[in-house]
Amino acid sequence: MRQWKRLRSLAILPLVLFLSASATLAQTAQVGTLAGEVKDQSGALLPGVSVVAQNQEKGFSRTEVTDAQGRFRFPVMPPGVYSITATLGGFQPVTLPNNLVETERTTNVAVGLSIESVSTEVTVTGEAPIVDATNTVVQSRMRSEDYQKLPIGRSYLTVIGQAPGVVGTTNVNSHGALTADNQYLMDGVDTTDTTTGTFGSNLNYESIQEVSVYTSGVSAEYGRAVGAIVNVVTKSGTNKPEGGFKYIFSNDDWNAQNTATNQVNGASLERVKFDQINPVYSLFGGGPIWKDHAWFYGTYEKQENTTPRTQTPGQVVEEYQQTTESPFWTVRFTGQLASNHNVWVKFTDSPTNGFVNNYWGAATPSAELFALTFQDQGADHWATQYSGVLGNSWTAEAMFASYSSFIDVYPFSNSPLDNGAPHFNQADNKYYNGATFDGRVERPRKQAILAASYYRTLGGNAHNFKFGYDWQGLESSNDFRYPNNQLFTDLAFNQVTRQVTPFGRQDFDSGASTSSGDIHAFYVRDKFEVGRRLFFEAGFRFERQTGSSDIGTTTVDTNTLSPRLSGSYDIAGTGKSLIVGSYGRFYQSIIQTFSDEFSAVPQQANYNNYRWDGTQYVFTGRVEVGGSGFDPNLDLKPTHVNEATIGFQQQLGRNMGAGVRYIHRTWGNLIDDVLTFDADDNIVRTVQNYEPAERSYRGVEFTFERRLSNNWFTSASYTYAKTEGNHFATVFSALGDFVNERCITTVDPGIGTNGIVPCGDVNDGPRAFGLPANDRPHNVKLSGTYTRRFGRVGLTGGAVAQAVSKATTSKQRQVTVLFPGTTISSGQPYTYFYESRGADRIDGTLYTFDASFEATFYTVRDIQVGFKSEIFELFNPQKQGAINNTAWCESTASAACQTARANYGTATVRASFQNPRSYRFSAIVRF
């Protein structure tokens, strides 16, 4: 029977290799390392010791023998808790349980053996890696055992917000990077949106095992991002059947009332509460398929969520609600093919329907319901991965995955005026009458990845060489437009009468468009020791990126080489006190939005421009940025970041650690387009690595962590930082546009000469340089839980707190470019800053405090029945966090300018203030 099982395992292996041979994970296989050394009572290293590592949850085990220096190493170990058993003739065997292995970290275990004739007491505490000399990346890691007890949103995206150096949640800013500069991995599968560079997929909350956020100092195994790298690891099942059901519910009627007022007219921003349960039904479970060899874990969750009423900031305030429905499911199968070979396959689907968005933005918002956009979205992916040990010196990892997302967008409602086309009102910098989008996009990504590691001792020092190949095939399929394919610009728009004072109109082309791209990456890195205290990781990453437009025109053709170096020095020789540092160059992929700009049928880009002459709209020119009218620049280099860090890390006992790290980052080769007029007054657009574009980040982070100890979990950080520059756009900005032309505003004659100002002063001068809205000089984060069991009753308390500087803002006014030598506007809009960008900041500090309490009753066979309550914004501060009026005037001659000056910096809708206190409850059954 034993031989049959072995033959069955070996028969499966070729199939697995066939499925994943064209791929593997060059960046994050879901494995870690368990290592250590064995000594006798005198401290002498013991070679030839048999060391067995057994997974305490799944039952499989692996065996190694210590080398001449008494060391052992178990590479490519699936995450989990392991026991270590060491045996050697003449010595008493010893077993050390509860050693935690996490992805991409090394858990070091010190094993001591005593001779058989000596009776000694062995303390079995196990190890958890807080400080790791072999991995000096700046990272934050949270396991389900921790975050499930915290009062946070039920998404890995809210867990990301707990990481130091990160501003916001969902699409975050990390260490000065943009929201489009991050990378989102699920079990190593890149789920980043191919077009926007933002997050592309949700996931069942109950299926997550851990969330890791890497923000600086990452190795050559990673590429395609200069912001945070988020890696979500899903649960895989164990030998013990487990599962449960949760019913999570909330009701707006239970929450506190809005206490803020409209800062312009003093009107109350109280909402009309609605008495409706918002339910989440969550079913989850897993267990063995074949004990010690194969396991499964699956989840299904359905969310129904209706938000409180939201107000539009128009001339007449209108209220609306958003109701979304999200049926998510995930299933994962994991197998131990042989003692050194692991494989898994996973499927997931995550649609959400019913979003309501203000896509016009905060500075120029949707002023009424007609200008809002409905959105349905979703994503699905499947992946398979193999990892294994091949002989004494080699390991291999392989993965293939397919991921795809879609977005359907359509108007909130249709206005009869101009068939629902949007109108921009220059008088108040707001949009009326029409939505931003109407159509559909699809964004698939295929991935094939391969990696191998080679272990070798050279000159008495251990080396771990790793080689990897990573292929990504991308597409961006777009078919969306403005309603009626038109956009109007008005000097005035009356929301009640629908009467307008016309200024201009743009008639856009339409049609579907699909661009594509490929990324091929190769990397080599070596982790090695120099003596007993100095550890280095050195490597480089080569990437080749190509892209083409919807008609096959080459848009991107570039090669990059990224050197990486990091190191640590063990001050005391104990592995607990480390000086760490890193230097590297990181390249940001050129996202598909860039290739879409060269489409023969670009979306909302090519248009005929018209100007109102007093009686009718008169054609003034053609703006064409797609097809033959806009040529790609194949000499472009992707934007890169040069980064240096230095810091100190200290492990305090087994389960606590503290550190401080300085991070310095500067951007280079920022890509932008530059717009000019030709001799016939047509707009000419060129793309280049714009030399005057700049951005930098400097920050110091202090961190503290305590986990898995005496029922406590605590994570705390303080970040002091500054981000500044003149380029904060995802693809193209206003920088460098029409610098030799003149711009005009008809509202503020105090700008320049009667409202006419050099466009260079608008788009390329000192006013364009400064602080972005996401700059946060001070950011304190704290989260923690405490669990205590009293007989059959378990009690858990949790808290999440944050104090952060408020956003920057700028006095501004929209201006338009004049045709050369005339006073005729081209209709090309830009933002004029009266002072440097971000010169103002909203007064005060935003602070939040959320709390939770869970009581669990353990019934027969430890089946748990529990109830959890969560309170968000416990102290109900409701402070202002955003502004709705950014317009300003130098002149005070007109009523419009007097109003702009009086209203600048004010908030007029509920969304500009912190949410009021709210509650969420959960009924829980677990086994």
CA-CA gap between termini: 33 Å
**Average pLDDT level:** 90
Number of helices: 6
**Overall number of strands:** 53
Radius of gyration from the alpha-carbon trace, in angstroms: 29 Å
Q: If classified by CATH, what would the architecture of the largest domain be?
A: Beta Barrel
Describe this structure in words.
The chain folds into 2 domains: 31-129, Immunoglobulin-like; 140-926, Maltoporin, Chain A (Beta Barrel), CATH 2.40.170. The protein has 6 helices and 53 strands. The strands form 10 sheets. It has a 22-stranded antiparallel barrel. The chain is globular and about 105 Å long.
Brief digest:
This protein is mainly beta and 927 residues long. It is 5% helix and 52% strand.
List the SSEs and their pairings.
Blueprint: H1 2-20, E1 32-39, E2 50-55, E3 61-65, E4 71-77, E5 80-87, E6 94-101, E7 106-112, E8 138-143, H2 144-147, H3 156-160, E9 166-167, E10 173-174, E11 183-186, E12 189-190, E13 208-216, E14 229-234, E15 242-251, E16 277-290, E17 294-306, E18 310-311, E19 319-320, E20 323-338, E21 341-349, E22 352-357, E23 373-390, E24 394-411, E25 423-425, E26 430-432, E27 438-458, E28 461-481, E29 486-493, E30 500-508, E31 513-530, E32 534-548, E33 554-570, E34 577-587, H4 592-596, E35 607-612, E36 617-623, E37 640-652, E38 656-668, E39 671-677, E40 683-689, E41 695-709, E42 712-725, E43 742-744, E44 756-758, H5 759-763, E45 778-790, E46 793-805, E47 808-809, E48 812-818, E49 825-833, E50 840-841, E51 845-858, E52 864-872, H6 895-903, E53 918-926
Parallel strand pairs: 1-7, 11-14, 25-29
Antiparallel strand pairs: 1-4, 2-3, 2-5, 5-6, 8-13, 9-10, 11-12, 13-14, 15-16, 15-53, 16-17, 17-20, 18-19, 20-21, 21-23, 22-23, 23-24, 24-27, 25-26, 27-28, 28-31, 29-30, 30-35, 31-32, 32-33, 33-34, 34-37, 35-36, 37-38, 38-41, 39-40, 41-42, 42-45, 43-44, 43-48, 45-46, 46-51, 47-50, 48-49, 51-52, ...
